[in-house]
C-alpha cells in the first residue's frame, strides 16, 4: 500500500498536475493502482514540441517539456531481435546517454508505445510537431501513426505541423487524423533528392485538406493551384503552371476575402505573351533583388479598398493582397 | 454558533470526531469553500460538525488558515526557497499520518491553497526520482510489516537489555575477581592460622 492510495482522486490529480511527464511515467510504474489511475485520468502534460524522425532501422523521438527541458529518446534495432533505447536530457550533458536493451522487442513497437503514452497526456494544443520519414520505409510498417492518432477521443491539435516525407502514403497516415482548424502553419517537403516531385493528388481530396485555412509551405508537387485556394498564405512549387490556372487563381483571389498571399515557383517558365494577353498590359519595375519584373494591379471584388498585386518573372509569381 | 458577520473577530465553534469543540476565527474559516457553501449564508445552530476528522488534524488545518489570513493574494511557493520559516516548521512538525489526514481534511473543507500547498510538498518529494526511489518515498508499511518491525524492535530492545545485563554482570564479576585474590589471601591466611592453632591445640 502506498501513501498516495489514501488520497481522494482530486488530490491525486492535483499532485500529478504538478509533476512533469517523466515523473508521471515513473510514478505510473510504482504500483498497479497508480498505473490504472494515471492511465484513466491522463493528466495533461502540455508539451510544446514533439519531433519524430523515422529511419529504416531506428526511430528518434524528441520532446520539449514546459520548463524547456529537451528529452531525446532513440530506439534502434539491435541485431534484429532487440531494441536499444538511448536517452538524453538537456540541460545536462548531451554526450551522456542512458542506455538499455529491451530483449525480444521490436524498436517500432517500443517507440510507438512511448509515443502513444506521450500523446495521451497531450490535451492542449501542441505548438510544433515535426514528423520526418527519412527512408523509403513502407507506410504499412509505420501504421502506428494512424492507430495512435485515431484512438484519441478528439483529434490532436497542432499549431505548426512540419512533415518531411518520401511518399504520399506517409502524408495519408497523418493528415486525416489531426484537427484542421487548429493548424496555422503546415509545411510539407519531400525528403531526399530534390528533383523528385511529391504526389499529392490523394491528399488534396481529403476532407481535412479542404478545411485547412491558414498557411501552407509545400515543396515540388504534382498538384494544381486549385488544390490550395482554401489557404490564406500559400508557398508552393510546381513543375509547370498554365496561364489558364493563373487566370483562375487571379479570379478566385479577387473574389476571396480570405486569400492574402500566393507565392508560386515553377520549373518550366510561364508563357509570357499568353499571360500578357490574359492579364493585360503590365507595369515593369525592379524588385528588391535588383531584377526586372512585371506587375499587374487589380481591384478586389470582395473589398474595393484592397488591391491584388501580381509580380511576375518567368519562374516565379507572387500574388499579394495590398490594403 | 456565533452569528456570521464580516468582522474577523467573530469566532466559530468546530466539533471534531472526538466530540470536542474549539474556536476558529471567521476569517480563517472563510478560506474553506465547503464552509462558505454550507454555513456562511444560512448559519448553523451550535458547533459546526466536521466530525470526520480528529481534533489535532482540524487544529492543524485551521492553524494554517489563521496564519494565511493576511496573505490573500498568495499563489503558492514556486521553489524550495519560497518556503518561509513558518511554512517549513508547519510541515516539519507533522508526521506522515498527520500529513495525510491534513491533506484529506483540507480537500474536504476545500481550502484550495492548503491543498495545493500540500500537493506541491508531495510533488517535490517525487520530482526527479526514478521508479525505485519513488517506491521508497510512497510505500507505507503494511500491518504485518509494522508488527514485524515492532517485533524486530522488541527483539533488538531485548537483545540490548541482555547485552546491558551481561555487561553489568561482567562488571560485577570483574569486581569480584578483583577482590578474589585479597579474599583468597585472607581466607588462606585464616585457614593456615586455624590449622596452626588447631595443631597447637591438638599438641
From TrEMBL, chain A:
Residues 1-50 form the F-box domain. It comes from the Eukaryota. PROSITE patterns: FBOX (PS50181). It comes from Caenorhabditis remanei (Caenorhabditis vulgaris). Signal peptide: none annotated. Pfam families: F-box, FTH. PANTHER family: DUF38 DOMAIN-CONTAINING PROTEIN-RELATED (PTHR23014:SF1), F-BOX A PROTEIN (PTHR23014). This is F-box domain-containing protein.
Automatic annotation (TrEMBL), chain B:
It comes from the Eukaryota. One of its GO terms (biological process) is ubiquitin-dependent protein catabolic process. Keywords: Ubl conjugation pathway. Transmembrane segments: none annotated. InterPro entries: SKP1 (IPR016897), SKP1-like (IPR001232), SKP1-like_dim_sf (IPR036296), SKP1/BTB/POZ_sf (IPR011333), Skp1_comp_dimer (IPR016072), Skp1_comp_POZ (IPR016073). Residues 14-69 form the SKP1 component POZ domain. Residues 113-159 form the SKP1 component dimerisation domain. Belongs to the SKP1 family. PANTHER family: SKP1. This is Skp1-related protein. It comes from Caenorhabditis remanei (Caenorhabditis vulgaris).
Amino acid at each position: 500500500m502506498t501513501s498516495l492510495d489514501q488520497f481522494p482522486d482530486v488530490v491525486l490529480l492535483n499532485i500529478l498536475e504538478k509533476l512533469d511527464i517523466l515523473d508521471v511515467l515513473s510514478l505510473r510504474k510504482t504500483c498497479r493502482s497508480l498505473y490504472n489511475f494515471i492511465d484513466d485520468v491522463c493528466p495533461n502534460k502540455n508539451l510544446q514540441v514533439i519531433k519524430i524522425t523515422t529511419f529504416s532501422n531506428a526511430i528518434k523521438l524528441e520532446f520539449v517539456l514546459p520548463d524547456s527541458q529537451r528529452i531525446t529518446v532513440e530506439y534502434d534495432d539491435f541485431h534484429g531481435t532487440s531494441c536499444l533505447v538511448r536517452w538524453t536530457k538537456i540541460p545536462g550533458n548531451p554526450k551522456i546517454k542512458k542506455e538499455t536493451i529491451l530483449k525480444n522487442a521490436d524498436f517500432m513497437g517500443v517507440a510507438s508505445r512511448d509515443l502513444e503514452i506521450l500523446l495521451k497526456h497531450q490535451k492542449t494544443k501542441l505548438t510544433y510537431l515535426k514528423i520526418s520519414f527519412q527512408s523509403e520505409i513502407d507506410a504499412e510498417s509505420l501504421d502506428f501513426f494512424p492507430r495512435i492518432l485515431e484512438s484519441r477521443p478528439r483529434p490532436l491539435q497542432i499549431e505548426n505541423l512540419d512533415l518531411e516525407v518520401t511518399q504520399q502514403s506517409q502524408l495519408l497516415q497523418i493528415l486525416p487524423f489531426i484537427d484542421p482548424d487548429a493548424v496555422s502553419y503546415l509545411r510539407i517537403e519531400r525528403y531526399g533528392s530534390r528533383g523528385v516531385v511529391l504526389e499529392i493528388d490523394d491528399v488534396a481530396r481529403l476532407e481535412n485538406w479542404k478545411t485547412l485555412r491558414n498557411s501552407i509551405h509545400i515543396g515540388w508537387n504534382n498538384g494544381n493551384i486549385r488544390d490550395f485556394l482554401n489557404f490564406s498564405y500559400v508557398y508552393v512549387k510546381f513543375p509547370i503552371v498554365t496561364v489558364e490556372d493563373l487566370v483562375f487563381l487571379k479570379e478566385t483571389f479577387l473574389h476571396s476575402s480570405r486569400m492574402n498571399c500566393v507565392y508560386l515557383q515553377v520549373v518550366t517558365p510561364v508563357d509570357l505573351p499568353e499571360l500578357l494577353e490574359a492579364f493585360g498590359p503590365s507595369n515593369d519595375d525592379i524588385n528588391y533583388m535588383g531584377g526586372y519584373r512585371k506587375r499587374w494591379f487589380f481591384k478586389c471584388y470582395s473589398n474595393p479598398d484592397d488591391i491584388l498585386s501580381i509580380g511576375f518573372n518567368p519562374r516565379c509569381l507572387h500574388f499579394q493582397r495590398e490594403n | 454558533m456565533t452569528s456570521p458577520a464580516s468582522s474577523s473577530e467573530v469566532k466559530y465553534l468546530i466539533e471534531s470526531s472526538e466530540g470536542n469543540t474549539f474556536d476558529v476565527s471567521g476569517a480563517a474559516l472563510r478560506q474553506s469553500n465547503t464552509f462558505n457553501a454550507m454555513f456562511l449564508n444560512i448559519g448553523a445552530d451550535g458547533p459546526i460538525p466536521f466530525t470526520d476528522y480528529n481534533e489535532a488534524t482540524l487544529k492543524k488545518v485551521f492553524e494554517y488558515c489563521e496564519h494565511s489570513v493576511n496573505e490573500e493574494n498568495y499563489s503558492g511557493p514556486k521553489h524550495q526557497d519560497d518556503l518561509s520559516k513558518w511554512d517549513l516548521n508547519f510541515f516539519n512538525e507533522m508526521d506522515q499520518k498527520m500529513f495525510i489526514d491534513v491533506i484529506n481534511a483540507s480537500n474536504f473543507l476545500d481550502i484550495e491553497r492548503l491543498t495545493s500547498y500540500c500537493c506541491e510538498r508531495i510533488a517535490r518529494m517525487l520530482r526527479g526520482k526514478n521508479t525505485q526511489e519513488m517506491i521508497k518515498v510512497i510505500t507505507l508499511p503494511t500491518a504485518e510489516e509494522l508488527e514485524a518491525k515492532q517485533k524486530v524492535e522488541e527483539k533488538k530492545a531485548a537483545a540490548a537489555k541482555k547485552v546491558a545485563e551481561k555487561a553489568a554482570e561482567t562488571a560485577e564479576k570483574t569486581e569480584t575477581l578483583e577482590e578474589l585474590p585479597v579474599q583468597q589471601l585472607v581466607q588462606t591466611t585464616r585457614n593456615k592460622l586455624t590449622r596452626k592453632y588447631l595443631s597447637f591445640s591438638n599438641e
